[in-house]
Amino acid sequence: MIHGPHRRGLRLLSGVGGAEIAKAALSVPGSGGFQPKSRKTSVFLVVMCILNGLTLGAVLFIVASGLTLSFSLMRVVNLSHGAFYLCGGFTGLTVYKISGSWVLGLLAAGSLVSILALVEERFFLRWARGNDLIETLVSLSIAILISDLVLVIWTGYPRNIEIPAVLSGAVDLPGIGMPYPLFRLFTLGLAVALGLGLLLFLKKTNTGILIRAGVDNFHMVAAMGFNVKRLFTLVFVLSGFLAGMAGVIGGTSWMLQVGEDWRILTLTLIVIIIGGMGSLGGTVLGALITGVISEFSKAYVPEFSLFFLFLPVAVILSIRPQGLFGRGRV
Q: Among residues 263, 267, 265, which one has the least CA distance to residue 293?
């Protein structure tokens, strides 16, 4: 029987989706299980929580980076963003099974969800522009419709996207000597690359500069003669594309199941509240804080995981309502 921190270690191992890690940890000769020294166990748990938190934070950053821009620019809480994530994940799963290409599934998921985002913005949200209640109800209705369609098409059984052969297995982390899934390290690298790409896009291109100006004061941008409607559509489509890609990445790391869309939406809104609307740097920090707190709380105090997840939200809202890097509404 395994007790205490050893049991938590096994729970973390099963949660990362790396069979190689579990085998390595359980292959102590004559031990009957994973029974390292107490100090090593504590270090192992801390390192695993940090790595899992960074991985979760990377996926949350990809989801939240597009939503925070559309949120701050259009002043609408898009409650269908979690459904975009779920739809993208199942779409990528289907394309991957048919084509055998994980990258093609990733791009197909982003493309399909961006089309859904385009339809939602052009035909449903645009006519309700300025009415916050109607916009919220419309996005909520679309989220429920997409969730039901996912349930009808892919049924309610949990699914998992198979890790590509080139990214399967685990690698020993230098200086630590602990194996960790290669795909999760790839997720971290992909999130960093997407973040740098978004930063260059917002800083160096005319469209990106226009988006940043619209985030600060979109009324002034409209008064200067720029096509604000086209800008809204572009940002909303970009937001959908990133959410669809994140669905494939999250579905490969964890599970795809009905209901996951609301969990991801909740975590994404927590990221935006912590980091601040319209701030890419704030989104990075918010995603890291949310991911690490989520993993540590689930490992050590699972019965209080939601309490610790929402605790920084309550503190930040009481001290700085616009978020750590938000500049307030103009």
A: 267
